[in-house]
Fold this protein.
Amino acid sequence: MPKIRKTKANSKYVPYASGFRPPNKDRQLKAIGFDTSSKPTNIDDWLAQYNEDGQTYKQFLQDCPWISSRKRKSVKQRFVPEGSNILEKYPDGKIYIVPVGEFDGHHYFYFDELAKFAEIYLGIPVSTLPGVDLEVKIKDRKAFWVEHPSETSQLKSDTRRSSSRTKQHTLESRFKGTQYQLGVKDLLKMLRLKIPDDALCFIGLTLSDLFCDDTDLFVAGMAAGNHRVAIFSFYRYNPTLSFSQADWFDVTMDKKQTQENIHKIMFQRSCKLLVHEINHLLGIDHCIFYDCCMNGSGHLSEDFRQPMHLCPVDLRKLQKLVGFGILKRYNNLLKFYEKHEMEEEREWVSKRIKMIGHISKSLEQEQLGLSQSS
């Protein structure tokens, strides 16, 4: 209830109630329930190498091309300028993922489940497309993108006559013994030729190792954001493989791993990589504020220990862009994590759901108290 004022209404100084101490920044951060960004523990960690400025929510609103009409010029689909989010502005838009190279026989990969996870996580429709064939000739030290008859224009609204011949496009590559890597630039170039007209972005996924420059040990992938295409490799996410820090071709295998363990680890790592990179294509930069799925990683160990979840800053960006309900998204993620026995992620999202429930209950009680007192 209101109290009788002991100070003048227009007093410049109004003290806190006796005994109250306003929370400092540490308490404010802890109240959110997220850990602040971890400090580097290795000279190869991302923040030990790069001076990242970070991207605030306000900067995201200013920079994200999907919020404005800047993407309209490059996207060949219906555009609704008065839409308040990406789904309303591009009502026919989808995210596509496509296997690049051989995946059959690797039964620890389920593309439909990867697509389902990305759709739940991002709140945007995600579809898979038939795979692209690669031919790698170890003896000849050559690699090719294989384009089959009628494949050229089956996705795009292209008026050109489709070829009746199978074509082979030479890809940049390098070989050492039985090991090989493919150049990301040529792969991105080929993906650009196949991007569907209704694609918000087009993601190629491969089990081939990748590189960009001759000095690279490897690259996990690369995106061409202006062209809405990206290519990413799961090769180094295989827990049976160990890699040299000096030579890209120096790889050893641990044959003691069970198929169940391989599947579980690779699937979790692949889910995280996929949504991290798609978020980049949607305009979300690396996070420096909290432990977050959008943290940068300087090496595989740092990548593996980073969380699946988005921090409050980046979750707010994605929610603004897409317009999903936070609680509904968390509940759907919980079901997915339970189905795939992703225990760490299941436990984390369960705590968030409970916290939202407590906050909602407190607000309801507060509103009830106000209505009764008025």
